[in-house]
């Protein structure tokens, strides 16, 4: 067990837990969490009362709708074949291409809807740790719409991550090995007896469970034989095992001999102590900081093994540990783009953002939900920040803090989605959006004392004392802006200045 934090549970500690275990919050949220005490606060994240069944999902994501859609696609393609008998080969191909483009447009539209839906869940969910862990698993078991091309399958996988978010890692790995989106992403459906595909066998060891250097190439080849014969039903996404296409022969994997199938491989893998060490390190780096010491990894790995791969006990130990609230951890993690956006909306008490602009932000900052760059997921930490992305963050802060008004430039959109006219679309999306309610966030009587107003906003946006003369610079800026009264426009400019600092990129 890691050494636990002492009884000195500060308001900064509460804000830190809220930022890391969830997506942050406003001063009222922080105060409520602080009032619980450290242990109860941690338990409140681990024991949410919001059920997955209570979450409304798009109609097209159900298995029934998937089957109906697949039937329609099949019938549409068959009709094209029937209607083009008298056409030339070129005319027939053009007709087929146009029909597929129309079907593709519908899938792209659903993909965008899924991205907006999940961003809304992060913002409004009463189970923020579950959503944060869903993001973790989405990066860990990375799949992309660009390869899978079926939003319903990616959505079902997202719900799989959500249902297992704080549960058993081994059970989830078994489930992922029979997940339709994963099947398509790693070409498992092409792996048959005599012609095994090594993609999933490699990634399940290298990226999902063991990490590089803890298996051999022969282990991969043998495991690939075991993962043969799995097929996907395109009508409902269900995965089954066709034993006629399975290599039933004897294999030797990680030193163990047997006629393993896919489930057997996973059971062998989870007998390795490296699994718990690998996951302990990944969880610590996601919630705390990079390159944890051996003592941290050993302790969390031991907890994961003793809990038979239940993740909840590991997170509880992590969130209660002294090191989690240390100077090396607090306010020392670069916000990933999704956290940057959702946390900003929560701090400014904005319940929603125009969907077109929210999707644009994901593209501009380089973290598109349901579209990690490759099977290894996103690069984290310092990789999120460069000259371009930092300036883009400052620009986005201006758009949101000014309520989308002409006072702040809306900027370019590098999404590449067809039909989006970049900046013009962004301006249209934000034109009638009112933005933050500054009369509520910064009441008029608070504005009569500039230092009090600045401290109030620092408490809201940073939730900690700022180093150096940063506070003094904010006060000086407020004095420059002050007129007869401190207007909402001027408050928005002050908020924009605060969020356009390196300090705001950290949590």
Structural class: mainly alpha
Q: What multimeric state do the chains show? A: single chain
Strand content: under 5%
**What gap, in angstroms, lies between the N and C termini?**
25 Å
Shape: globular
Helix-strand sequence: HHHHHHHHHHHHEEEEHHHHHHHHHHHH
- The count of helical stretches stands at 24
Give me the Rg, rounded.
25 Å
Q: What's the count of strands?
A: 4
Specify the biggest β-sheet. Answer: 2 strands, antiparallel
Q: Going across the major beta sheet, what is the strand order?
A: 1-2
* Fraction in helix: 55-70%
Outline the low-pLDDT stretches.
409-422
Calculate the mean pLDDT score and round it. Answer: 92
Task: List the defining traits of the structure above.
507 residues, mainly alpha, two-stranded antiparallel ribbon, 24 helices, 4 strands, 2% strand
Describe this structure in words.
The chain starts with 10 loop residues before the first helix and ends in an 8-residue tail after the last helix. With 507 residues, the protein is mainly alpha-helical. Strand 3 (251-253) and strand 4 (256-258) form a beta hairpin. The longest helix is centred in the N-terminal third of the chain and has 36 residues, at 89-124. Among the domains are: 11-48, no CATH class; 337-430, no CATH class; 438-505, no CATH class. It has 24 helices and four strands.
How are the SSEs ordered, and which strands pair?
Layout: H1 11-21, H2 27-36, H3 38-46, H4 63-83, H5 89-124, H6 128-140, H7 145-148, H8 151-163, H9 169-176, H10 180-185, H11 199-209, H12 217-226, E1 230-232, E2 239-241, E3 251-253, E4 256-258, H13 262-269, H14 273-287, H15 294-306, H16 312-320, H17 337-347, H18 355-365, H19 387-401, H20 422-430, H21 438-441, H22 450-461, H23 470-481, H24 488-499
Antiparallel strand pairs: 1-2, 3-4
